[in-house]
Specification:
heterotrimer, A alpha/beta (about 450), B mainly alpha (about 350), C mainly alpha (about 300), A: alpha/beta, Rossmann fold, C: about 300 residues
Chain lengths: ~450, ~350, ~300
């Protein structure tokens, strides 16, 4: 019976304590940056390095420079477990906190779809870097959503261009068999229309193989791959599907250097279980791998040596860690762009949006930051929130990723028209009207 | 002392059979309703409405549906996520094909479509019982989710593969779409849930509910006394699916705004089942209590470190949250296996005798 | 209309017959995959057979066992002591579960016990991640994951090892349940807790024994699946793929788990490879359930399950 009393007391306490949600406290000379992460749950192996990269870069700026132009960044992580519901909960809880969130990086396509309509109403920037809704790259319909430096459709065209390069020219693709193994979700299917159009254009035989979530068991898929015997495989995978796919490819003796994963299928976590079998596996990426840049040295000096880190030191420079660094870098450079116009003080979200829309990252600036050659220069305009960036192809050598190509440009002439049509469709669904970019600054 | 029915006499059969026969119950219920409709939207901030109350209402509707099927009719079903998906996608198709149709009618029609689908998937229940049926309903879950993923017609051939709630008004007020404010959506969800709770309560107190409970308790005996198992079970499946379908439509239109099939995967099915079991099988109030528990406890656990002023790394926090949540479930089951509704009943009985112990 | 019929019925059959070595590969692959599912289903069967509990947490126990094994090996413990230590951990877990979850819920309804295992599931999820971290871990027990060719058919070493292990495990289980005293006691407990108590069977000891054995099966399943995909959270989702095996074979039958696994495995793969492309692929998941459902309609308690005798 005492157990029952304990129960009643607990219930009563919780009813009393529930309404006391933590409320905001605004501080001067600070900007609030929420960081939506997934450090637990099924996608934690991918989420943890990303979260660490983001945290480390922003903390490094605070420690080394005292913030951005003297304005400190207040970073708060919120765990979403890659779950849409929890992502929405994090967003609602943090959007008004500490004077207002400056920008959101949802880190999940599902959560991005939820936040896109809310972003325009709550007037906060949503930056879905290389994921999310590709159609939102048309800034005339989605002024508050940014997808730079590039999107899935552009990536698919870049990968085809790379394959063409490897085969000795895009004309040589005619009659070759290419298989796209994709996660059976809207994310995985993103590349399919682009690939189908390129198959028509260049004459290669495209086979689309879906792998059902979560993709723990892929025997049937790889049996079909063996039967088709393609020249190249492109994969849009996620989570455990990546690890299993790489292992299966190795065990059916598929030439790993003809197996290219997209930028969410090419991280350390994806190749470790396969061990030596994964050697030669290629992947697309938005930035260079490795920890040899000045920024990394600064991160070690200002964050790890001072004990302000969350993750372990030996994981600096991993593929997804660098992705987090890239995301944080884009965000802070956008802040800087806005401050250049509006002054070195805490910004409003409208000003942040202006900063994102006039984002112009040059090689020189990258050098200044300490990331020379890390990513490709990006220019964002009112119509083009994608930046139409190229990708790098990296290859796993058993111990680390190495870059094995130059920046491979996407096929803008194929991707952009489809993107514009999709943007009109998605924008109309939400009841938006198209902006006229020529009338704005 | 306060909660006594001494002096309350009924003079008509109707009064005797009322849902809330005790006057104090009626007063408290009325006050609660007024608070929920008037006070809460004024007092609660957007976070509370958007992230706690609206999902609570929507999940209670789904839990209500599942409770009718599992708690009253005894058919364990794990296909709730799939049925909610049917409701959501059919609501989307209907509202995009007939933009002039009022959104309330769209929800009801979506529920109807789901009822038909539920009817089809309920047919195996005539032959299969118990946990076998539960696992067989997973076939419905996986198939429906696959169907919506695969057939582009359901998303109107959207390149993104997701469905988006279009902006719709009711009586001139924007109810769905990005412009709809949280209080309006909250009131819409509240109205729907209240309506369906009344319908469900009347169903279970009437002939239909009794035939369900007969099937649940001793289905062979029930068949012998004339309760037709085919009709009863299929009716249970279809009505339950109706509720779940409407809940699914509300899930996308009033809460999320847009959704892909991952929002309706098997976790949703399990979540609603947990709500029903924790709240109390075979109890209307139990569905609400269970939904409140499952929706609010994780949020409470997430916010607790802030309240206590303790800074914890988010991963550790989430892991402890999971452990506490699991532990709480086991604790509840040990203390009261019949769910929160039974605890509520015991509380009311104790209140009648208070301050005396017996 | 006729084209549709042709495409659905004749086409795939022609395809199958036209390439017999490939068909053999699909069948062998299906058998192997099915046995991997059976390994997980076995844990469910054991616990249901002996304590009447449908253990929702079995998937997480597989994950937990694999995590513990890999965690110990990462800290430098060699394979055999690590296996022994993991077994000890699973026995300790069985003790804890019996004391905290099962003892207070003696003779409650099945669905209540099911819910309790759900609570256990959440708890172990959080605890496993807390204790061992959330990265992907490589599991290397010395079984190579390469393939070799036999008569033009590609066969995978890891899968063959898993199949063999499953066969041995099942044989041991079958003997255990049929021939030993403890096995009989377990079956008595599954029938009726209170009756078993009244004739003097030590309920608590039996439960600890059975959950420990299920823990052992979980370790084996964890090793096989972990070797295939690396040890990470998604391992617990394997339970969902094992459920059709469970319902096809019957909740209470150990040979049923194997036969069910084989049928589901082969059925799944053949459907996916030959009929999948017609509808765009990825039909494996729901097809397994539909297949099991079809069998259930003929035999409502699974192929080998106990016939439920209902009385008024």
């Amino acid at each position: 019976m005492t157990l029952r009393r304990v129960m009643f007391v607990l219930l009563a306490l919780s009813i009393v304590a529930l309404p006391m949600g933590g409320r905001a406290w605004a501080q001067a000379k600070e900007m609030f940056v929420p960081s939506l992460v997934y450090r637990t749950g099924p996608y934690a192996p991918s989420g943890v390095p990303f979260a660490n990269g983001m945290w480390d870069y922003l903390t490094m700026l605070n420690e080394r420079d005292g913030g951005i132009n003297g304005v400190k960044l207040v970073v708060e992580e919120c765990e979403t477990q890659y779950d849409t519901k929890q992502g929405v909960e994090c967003y609602e809880r943090l959007k008004g906190k500490n004077g207002g969130a400056m920008a959101f990086n949802p880190l999940s396509t599902g959560i991005t779809y939820q936040l896109i309509p809310k972003a325009a109403v709550d007037k906060v920037v949503v930056h879905s870097m290389g994921y999310g809704m590709t159609a939102a790259s048309d800034g005339r319909w989605f002024p508050w959503v940014f997808t730079f430096p590039t999107t899935y459709w552009s990536q698919a065209s870049s990968v085809i261009r790379y394959i063409g390069q490897q085969e000795g020219g895009l004309e040589k693709l005619k009659g070759k068999k290419i298989v796209h193994i994709y996660h059976n979700s809207p994310y995985g299917k993103e590349a399919n229309p682009t690939l189908e159009e390129l198959a028509r254009k260049y004459g290669f035989e495209l086979t689309l193989l879906a792998v059902d979530h979560p993709g723990q068991e892929q025997k049937a898929t790889w049996l079909q791959v063996r039967r088709i015997n393609p020249a190249w495989i492109y994969m849009s995978g996620w989570g455990v599907m990546n690890q299993v796919a790489v292992k299966e490819a190795a065990s059916v003796n598929f030439p790993m250097d003809h197996f290219i994963g997209n930028w969410w299928s090419a991280s350390e976590a994806d190749v470790i279980p396969a061990g030596d079998g994964a050697k030669g596996y290629k992947g697309a990426t938005l930035h260079a791998p490795g920890a040899s840049f000045k920024v990394h040295a600064d991160i070690v000096k200002y964050v790890y040596d001072k004990g302000k880190n969350i993750g372990p030191k030996d994981k600096i420079g991993e593929a997804l860690y660098n992705r987090g660094v890239t995301n944080a870098m884009y965000m802070t450079e956008a802040f800087r762009t806005a401050m250049a116009k509006y002054g070195n003080k805490p910004l409003t979200t409208e000003q942040v949006r202006w900063g994102y829309e006039h984002f112009n990252l040059t090689d020189a600036r990258l050098d200044q930051i300490g990331l020379k050659g890390f990513t490709h220069p990006v220019k964002v305009t009112c119509e083009d929130h994608e930046g139409n960036g190229p990708v790098l192809i990296q290859q796993w050598d058993g111990k680390k990723w190495n870059v094995v190509s130059e920046w491979v440009q996407p096929m803008r002439e194929v991707v952009r028209p489809k993107l514009e049509t999709a943007a009109v469709e998605e924008g109309k669904k939400l009841g938006y009207t198209m902006r006229d970019c020529s009338k704005e600054n | 002392m306060i909660y006594r029915e001494a002096g309350q006499f009924k003079s008509t059969y109707a009064a005797d059979q009322a849902v809330f026969p005790i006057r104090q119950d009626r007063i408290i219920g009325g006050l609660a309703l007024v608070a929920a409709v008037v006070a809460l939207p004024l007092v609660a901030d957007e976070y509370w409405l958007q992230a706690v109350l609206i999902p609570f209402l929507i999940y209670s509707l789904a839990a209500l549906g599942l409770n009718l099927l599992t708690g009253y009719a005894g058919q364990v079903s794990l296909g709730t996520g799939g049925f909610m998906a049917v409701g959501a996608y059919s609501a989307f198709k209907l509202s995009s094909a007939f933009p002039w149709l009022s959104i309330i009618i769209v929800f009801l029609l979506a529920g109807l479509v789901t009822a038909l689908v539920g009817l089809a998937f309920g047919i195996p229940s005539l032959r299969i019982k118990g946990f076998y049926l539960a696992v067989a309903t997973l076939a419905a879950q996986f198939f429906l989710v696959w169907l919506f993923n695969k057939v582009a017609w359901f998303t109107d051939y959207a390149s993104s593969g997701t469905i988006t709630a279009p902006p719709r008004t009711v009586l001139g007020v924007m109810v769905t779409g990005p412009e709809a404010t949280a209080p309006v959506r909250y009131l819409a969800a509240l109205a729907m849930v209240a309506l369906f709770a009344v319908i469900a309560k009347n169903l279970v107190r009437g002939r239909v509910g009794r035939s369900w409970m007969a099937i649940r308790d001793r289905d062979i005996a029930a068949e012998i006394i004339g309760v037709r198992p085919l009709r009863t079970k299929l009716l249970a499946f279809s009505i339950s699916s109706f509720f779940c379908g409407v809940a699914g439509a509300e899930y996308v239109f009033l809460y999320l705004g847009s959704a892909e099939t991952l929002a309706f995967d098997i976790n949703v099915s399990f979540l609603v089942l947990f709500m029903v079991i924790i709240g109390g099988l075979g109890s209307i109030l139990g569905s609400f209590l269970g939904a409140a528990f499952i929706v609010m406890v994780p949020i409470f656990l997430t916010n607790m470190p802030h309240l206590l002023g303790v800074a914890m790394p988010v991963a550790l926090q989430k892991q402890i949250e999971l452990m506490v949540f699991g532990g709480l479930i086991v604790l509840f089951l040990i203390v009261e296996p019949n769910g929160l509704a039974r605890l509520w009943q015991i509380g009311k009985e104790k209140l009648r005798l208070w301050p005396f112990p017996y | 209309m006729l084209d549709l019929l042709y495409a659905v019925v004749v086409g795939p059959v022609k395809d199958m017959v036209g390439a017999p070595t490939f068909l053999a590969e699909v069948v062998i692959g299906g058998l192997a995959a099915g046995l991997m599912y059976s390994l997980v289903a076995l844990g469910f069967v054991l616990i249901y057979k002996a304590s009447g509990v449908f253990n929702f947490a079995q998937g997480v126990m597989v994950l937990f066992a694999a995590l513990t094994l890999v965690g110990l090996m990462e800290r430098g413990v060699p394979l055999v002591p690590a296996l022994a230590l993991t077994m000890l951990v699973m026995v300790a877990l069985a003790f804890a579960i019996e004391r905290v979850v099962l003892r207070p819920l003696v003779n409650q309804e099945q669905i209540i016990l099911f819910m309790a295992t759900i609570g256990l599931n959440f708890f172990l999820e959080g605890f496993g991640e807390l204790a061992w971290g959330s990265n992907v871990k490589k599991l290397d027990v010395g079984i190579p994951d390469s393939s070799f060719m036999v008569w033009g058919i590609q066969i995978n070493r890891l899968e063959m090892t898993a199949a063999l292990t499953a066969a041995v495990l099942v044989a041991v289980m079958a003997v255990f349940f049929q021939r030993t005293r403890i096995g009989r006691a377990l079956r008595a407990v599954a029938d009726d807790h209170e009756a078993a108590l009244s004739i003097g069977i030590p309920l608590n000891t039996i439960w600890i024994v059975v959950w420990s054995v299920a823990g052992l099966v979980a370790i084996v399943a964890g090793i096989m699946w972990g070797a295939k995909s690396g040890v990470q959270f998604s391992l617990s989702l394997i339970a969902l793929k094992a459920l059709p095996v469970l319902i096809l074979g019957g909740f209470t039958s150990v040979p049923g788990a194997i036969v069910g696994g084989l049928i589901i495995g082969v059925g799944e793969k053949i459907a996916e490879v030959y009929w999948g492309p017609l509808v765009g692929g990825a039909i494996e998941n729901w097809f397994a359930y539909v297949l099991a459902l079809a069998f259930l309609l003929v035999r409502p308690q699974g192929l080998f399950g106990e016939k439920i005798i209902e009385r008024v």
